[in-house]
Amino acid sequence: MKQVKKLAVAFVLFVAATSFVNAQSKVAHIDVQKLLAEMP
Q1: How many CA atoms lie within 13 Å of 25's alpha carbon, on the beta-carbon side?
Q2: Measured distance CA(31)–CA(6) in Å, rounded
Q3: Whole-number Å distance between alpha carbons of 40 and 33
Q4: By three-state DSSP, how is residue 40 classified?
Q5: pLDDT tens figures, 4-26
Q6: How far apart are CA 36 and CA 22, in angstroms?
Q7: What is the pLDDT of residue 37?
Q8: Mean of the pLDDT values across residues 20-33?
Q9: Using alpha carbons only, what angle is made at residue 25 by residues 8 and 6, rounded to the nearest 5 degrees?
């Protein structure tokens, strides 16, 4: 029963870490000069 509990905890940590990494990878690069030139 201890092995099942360890596997469950490891799986939950793995899923949480994976979702955290995916959330952190959303990065955008903006050309500020072009943005300011296009604005009215």
Answers
A1: 6
A2: 48
A3: 13
A4: coil
A5: 889 889 988 887 777 766 666 66
A6: 30
A7: 94
A8: 75
A9: 10
pLDDT at 23: 63
Phi, psi (deg, nearest 5) at residue 28: -125, 150
Rg of the chain in Å (alpha carbons): 21
Phi-psi category of residue 31: left, alpha or beta, with phi > 0 → left and psi -120 to 50 → alpha: beta
Q: Which helix (H) or strand (E) holds 1?
A: none
Q: Is the pTM of this model over 0.85?
A: no
The pair of structure tokens assigned to 27 is: 């990065």
Q: Which helix (H) or strand (E) holds 25?
A: none
> What SS3 state is found at 28?
coil
